Amino acid sequence: MHDNGTTTVRSAARAVDSVIVVTELEELVLTPGERARGVHVDSVMFTMDWTGEDYPGQLAAFVAGRVRAFGAEPTDVDTNVVQHAAETDPTLRRGDLPVRQLDHLSGVLADLGCTLMVWENGTDTYEILVALTDGREPTGLTHQGLPVRAWGSEPEETLVSLNCPNCSQMLVWQLPADQTLADERCDCGAALFDATGRPLPNVTLHD
């Protein structure tokens, strides 16, 4: 999240296992040729609204294109089966289809030595990357200071944001999964969380 002058962004330190952590996102999501040309990670990222694609097949086409860029044949990289199943599913709710598509593509990519990744930027959009991982599940990846994780994996960090009920300042924390905001206060002195890390009754967290 970008600081617009009224937002305080607070980061928490996180222990890193150097044996399993991959720190260079560019090495996984860009080809050697792309890195040599100075291509940016944003250029190989697909943005999809939480409600779904702009048109059917758009997500699958992006994923297939990235697989081809890595020199592999994108066999079965499509979401037709998911789309057809959704058309006859009476329980389908708004926002369910993109999740099912991403679940499906994640499994397909695993068989191709790739990993479907999502950039956790704190919005309600899906920011999707395809990484060449050869069976590994990379951890500890970030982009612009925010976490990138394998689709379907547990977040290593969570974003918590709120507006202080006392001074209205927007506060954002980037927390390891095992850390809470117990007894946290705003810089103005207002209490925000109780001793267990639960927000106080007058505090509303952003979705």
Task: Report on this structure.
There is one protein chain. The protein has 207 residues and is α+β, with helices and mostly antiparallel strands. The chain is 22% helix and 22% strand. It is built from five helices and eight strands. It has a five-stranded antiparallel beta sheet. A three-stranded mixed beta sheet has the order 1-8-7, with no helix packed on it. Strand 3 and strand 4 form a beta hairpin. The longest helix is centred in the middle third of the chain and has 15 residues. The radius of gyration is 19 Å and the shape is globular. The two termini are 14 Å apart. The N terminus is likely disordered.
Order of neighbouring strands in the sheet with most strands:
2-4-3-6-5
Could you tell me the radius of gyration in angstroms? Answer: 19 Å
Helix content: 10-25%
% residues in beta strands? 15-25%
Instruction: Indicate the structural class.
Output: alpha+beta
What series of H and E elements makes up the topology? EHHEHHHEEEEEE
Ends apart, CA distance between termini: 14 Å
- Care to count the β-strands? 8
Contiguous uncertain segments of 5+ residues: 1-23
Q: Describe the global form.
A: globular
Task: Reconstruct the topology from this structure.
Blueprint: E1 7-11, H1 25-29, H2 32-36, E2 46-49, H3 58-69, H4 80-87, H5 96-110, E3 114-119, E4 125-132, E5 141-143, E6 146-150, E7 157-163, E8 170-176
Parallel strand pairs: 1-8
Antiparallel strand pairs: 2-4, 3-4, 3-6, 5-6, 7-8
